[in-house]
Amino acid sequence: MDIVIYLIIALGGLGGGYAMAMTVLRKSIEKRSEDLVKEAESKAEVIKQERMLQAKEKFIQLKAEHEKSIQARNAEILQSENRAKQKESTLSQKIEETRRKQAELDAMKESLKSQQEIVARKEGELEKLHRKQVEQLQIVAGLSAEDARNQLVEALKNEARTEAASHVKDIMEEAKLTANKEAKRIVVQTIQRVATEHAVENSVSVFNIENDEVKGRIIGREGRNIRAIEAATGVEIIVDDTPEAIILSCFDPVRREIARLALHQLVTDGRIHPARIEEVVAKVKRQIEEEIVETGKRTCIDLGIHGLHPELTRMVGRMKYRSSYGQNLLQHSREVANLCAIMAAELGLNVKLAKRAGLLHDIGKVPDDEPELPHAILGMKLAEKYKEKPEVCNAIGAHHDEIEMTSLISPIIQVCDAISGARPGARREIVESYIKRLKDMEALALSQPGVSSTYAIQAGRELRVIVESEKVSDKDAEMLSFNISQKIQNEMTYPGQVKVTVIRETRAVSYAK
After folding, report:
1. Successive 10-residue mean pLDDT values, the chain, 513 residues
2. For residue 248, what are the β-bridge partners?
3. What is the dihedral of CA 102, 105, 111, 117, to 10 degrees?
């Protein structure tokens, strides 16, 4: 191609042969085009042949794979047919076996039916024979079958009652011996494990002063200071000839303590006038109220009692300023709580519940108002008001037998209260009044007909009455014990409870000479 172009340029350079050069060039181009077309056609034919060969090979491969899958599916179908034939054969065998067993069962049913008919026939014969024998026995014994059965049952009942009564008596005697021994052990161990002081605190009702000059300052000009103190505290202040002492008189121990502390601060400070008195009393009241609440909380923490209502906690704190027969109420309640916990643990009862009831058992002695109710009943109502458990409420109300005991914790509270109040040194009492009370108790019992002698024992908590056996029978002794207890209850004032025991015995004495 390049040669042709050079030739054209050369001819063009000659000037005259341009047309000829173009003709030659055209022919050359046409020839070249024909050659290219032929070459392309030959290459296309070759590619066509190759593509046809590839397609044929692919078709052959796909055909082979298809035939292989058909063969595999046919093999699976053949296996399924074989399994179905095997199952059909097995089912046929089972059906045949079932038919055979059904035939055997039908035969057994027929056999049982015939046997039942035979048994029924024999039972009928036996029943006739039994009735005949019963009739013969009734004729011989002169009793019907019902009467004989009743007599036999009654005899067996009487025999069983006799044996049961004997066993019950033995068991009761053994239980009493064991219970008394176990109760003594538990009480002794409980008392031994609780160590408390014999000398307990008592609310102070006497205010000591350094000299009698302070009395004049306390009274003030025309008595204005003493009137201001009495008006602010609600306590009657008695200033008499007692040397270096002023008596504070009030039924409320908290008020009495407020008055004592206020007087102490006023005397120490030296400024005693109505305005100062009101200021000091108000301050002491706040201090006492805070101390009451703090004492109640500290007591509950010490005893491990949780969830107590704030008002009950405050009442527990008020016990610190309350005494009963010289025994500080808070110390007494703490002691009872500890005793109850130990005794409940020994008996396998709820220790926390017993300790809670022991602490609250005298809560009715320290309410803000003083209704005309026994302190046990009032304490029970307060416990119910502040959502205490029924066992605790019953133990509080029943510890002096005002209500019936409904739980095992109630007698434990009663026993521990008696232990705490009756131990030596727990309570103080004027000797003269104590001796007079015991003599009055003995005289009251001695005035009854048939009584020969009386003895007050256990610090006045038990009265032994000995009667003449010729004049008083056993039934009269029971009535006498009840009458004496009622007279003591109605005519005398005493702490706790008094047990009245009437003893009647007969003695026969003779001498061998």
Report:
1. 54 59 83 87 89 90 90 90 90 91 90 88 84 75 70 80 75 70 62 48 58 74 78 75 73 76 81 82 86 89 87 87 74 88 85 89 79 82 89 89 85 84 51 71 88 79 85 86 88 79 80 77
2. 237
3. -110
